[in-house]
Amino acid sequence: VVSVGLHLLVDLHGSDPVRLKNVELVKTCLPGAAAKCGMTAMGPPVLHQFPGQGVTGVLVLKESHISVHTWPEHAFAALDIFTCGPADPRKAVDFIKQLLGASASRTVTVDRG
Amino acid sequence: VVSVGLHLLVDLHGSDPVRLKNVELVKTCLPGAAAKCGMTAMGPPVLHQFPGQGVTGVLVLKESHISVHTWPEHAFAALDIFTCGPADPRKAVDFIKQLLGASASRTVTVDRG
């Protein structure tokens, strides 16, 4: 058995629906979150705006990936961060939580490997 | 509290290292896995080959996303599938497990929301 890294699944509740529809905000927050914990993006984020609804954003990292999916109608965002190496993914979580204006969060942490 | 979908984190052990280095195989397996459970890709997969090492592949779906990260040196692949809606993500897991030749798997399922 080998441990390759930590995978955090973070449910963010009570976020601002206007921010959760804002694809430009999600586009900015992903590289910003990676930078906060010294992770390296392997390209630009992949983004998809569902017309009048939520946003999907994924950033592939040297250390694995970050994804955000939003549901403005539920003031909810689902975040996952998978990091290999010494980076502390909790800093990325705090950054995105603040940027989306979430009032509550629940994190499930899984040691992958 | 709202449930938006299931997020499966699947550790695949005992995979063939040659397959785990094969970016073309990963490129094929992601849309194939999505098709197996009737999910819709929102574009081509994003791929990264670490020279002489593993592969990262991410496919953004209408129903959320699938990612695969491989470690040929550990005969290991880390898979995550986040699906919203009626699709059964277990069919996608079985498809990728078979394609990568994994002999064992461990799945953590998280109800997101």
Brief overview:
The structure is a homodimer of 113-residue chains. With 113 residues, chain A is of the alpha+beta class. Chain A has helices at 17-20, 23-36, 89-100; strands at 5-13, 46-49, 55-61, 64-71, 76-83, 104-112.
Helices and strands in order:
The structure is a homodimer of 113-residue chains.
Chain A: E1 5-13, H1 17-20, H2 23-36, E2 46-49, E3 55-61, E4 64-71, E5 76-83, H3 89-100, E6 104-112
Antiparallel strand pairs in A: 1-5, 1-6, 2-3, 3-4, 4-5
Overall geometry of chain A: globular
Which bin fits the share of residues in helices of chain A? Answer: 25-40%
Task: Note poorly predicted spans of chain A.
Answer: none
* Rg of Cα set of chain A: 13 Å
The mean pLDDT of chain A is: 95
Looking at how many chains there are and whether they match, the oligomeric state comes to homodimer
Category from helices, strands and their pairing of chain A: alpha+beta
Percentage of residues in strands of chain A? 35-45%
Name the chain pair with the biggest interface and residue counts per chain. A-B, 28 and 28 residues
Please describe what this structure looks like.
Two copies of one chain form a homodimer. By secondary structure, chain A is α+β, with helices and mostly antiparallel strands. Chain A is 27% helix and 40% strand. Chain A has helices at residues 17-20, 23-36, 89-100; strands at 5-13, 46-49, 55-61, 64-71, 76-83, 104-112. In chain A, strands 2-3-4-5-1-6 form a six-stranded antiparallel β-sheet, with helices on one face. In chain A, a hairpin with a 4-residue loop joins strand 4 (64-71) and strand 5 (76-83). In chain A, helix 2 (23-36) packs antiparallel against helix 3. The longest helix of chain A is centred in the N-terminal third of the chain and has 14 residues, at 23-36. In chain A, 49% of the residues are buried. The mean pLDDT of chain A is 95. Chains A and B meet through strand 1, strand 3, strand 4, strand 5 and strand 6 of A and strand 1, strand 3, strand 4, strand 5 and strand 6 of B.
